[in-house]
Specification:
By secondary structure, the chain is an alpha/beta fold. It has a single domain (5-248), classed as Aldolase class I (TIM Barrel, Alpha-Beta Barrel), CATH 3.20.20.70. The protein has helices spanning 16-30, 45-55, 81-86, 97-102, 107-119, 132-136, 140-151, 179-197, 199-204, 215-222, 239-248, and strands at residues 5-9, 38-42, 60-64, 89-94, 123-128, 161-165, 206-209, 229-232. Strands 7-6-5-4-3-2-1-8 form an 8-stranded parallel sheet. The radius of gyration is 17 Å and the shape is globular. The protein binds glyceraldehyde-3-phosphate. The site of glyceraldehyde-3-phosphate has 14 residues, from strand 8. It is found in: Cytoplasm. Belongs to the triosephosphate isomerase family. Substrate binds at residues 9-11, 172, 212, 233-234.
């Protein structure tokens, strides 16, 4: 039985003060001793430290939105795994479609970042997913298989990797993939992992769904056999909504 994992990706939202307030509200909404599923929040880099203090001792873990593959140096605008670990992050999101779409991230750079994060002991959430044009041209399976295969190239142990399937056309658009559409791609991802790593690793891999998950559709999505939680954008910016989604996974 895979433990579900729900992570709120706050993207470029909230000041430090707003992030702290939201983190406090979430901890209160989940209640003391919550253990229904794994939970994380990914504030902006500047808010990680303060949000981290607020969630310390709670079930909520600190997640980063990206990391670089070098230790340090002339990489303006980037952040290192050492910096993320020092602030208390346990997970890092890598290859989000917004990074791929707007910041030139490729399967090759995603792979470098994942290798570095894993080598440094950070757990990874690898994001994959097709655009609307790719879905309409019926290349979803090809695109997602390459993102998984190339993203994980050369990585032998995926026990601390989670994959998030996020169809780009469903992110922030209010259009959720139907539970059947999502399940079809999740199964494809699990089958790809079976080919690459064998049955045992594939059986243990958690695959999150992301893309307009809300309290009203979370339970149906999370009930699918290969959907092991969610990567939540917009709805994670409201503590009550995010808590409701977490409870749907618990
Ligand atoms: O990382 C989260 C996803 O991009 C989903 O965003 P969304 O829930 O706002 O559609």
């Amino acid at each position: 039985m895979r433990q579900k994992i729900v992570v709120g990706n706050w993207k470029m939202n909230n000041t430090i003060a707003e992030s702290s307030a939201l983190a406090s509200e979430l901890v209160a909404a989940l209640g003391k001793g919550f253990s229904g599923c794994e939970v994380g929040i990914a504030p902006t880099y500047v808010a990680l430290q303060e949000a981290g203090k607020i969630i310390a001792g709670s079930a909520v873990q600190l997640v980063a939105q990206n990391c670089h593959y070098e230790n340090d140096g002339a990489f303006t605008g980037e952040i290192s795994t050492g910096m993320l670990k020092a602030v208390g992050c346990s997970y890092v999101i890598i290859g989000h479609s917004e990074r791929r779409q707007f910041f030139g991230e490729t399967n090759a750079t995603v792979n470098l970042r994942i290798k570095k994060a894993l080598a440094e002991g950070l757990k990874v959430i690898l994001c994959v997913g097709e655009t609307l044009a790719e879905r309409e041209s019926e290349v979803t399976s090809k695109v997602v298989t390459s993102q998984v295969t190339e993203g994980l190239a050369g990585i032998s142990d995926i026990s601390t990797v989670v994959i998030a399937y996020e169809p780009v056309w469903a992110i922030g658009t209010g259009k959720t993939a139907s539970s059947a559409q999502a399940e079809e791609v999740h199964l494809l991802i699990r089958n790809t992992i079976t080919k690459l790593y064998g049955d045992a690793a594939a059986g243990k891999l958690r695959i999150q769904y992301g893309g307009s998950v809300k309290p009203s559709n979370a339970a149906e999505l999370f009930a699918m056999p290969n959907i092991d939680g969610g990567l939540i954008g917009g709805a994670s910016l409201n503590a009550a909504d995010f808590a409701a989604i977490i409870k749907a996974a618990s």
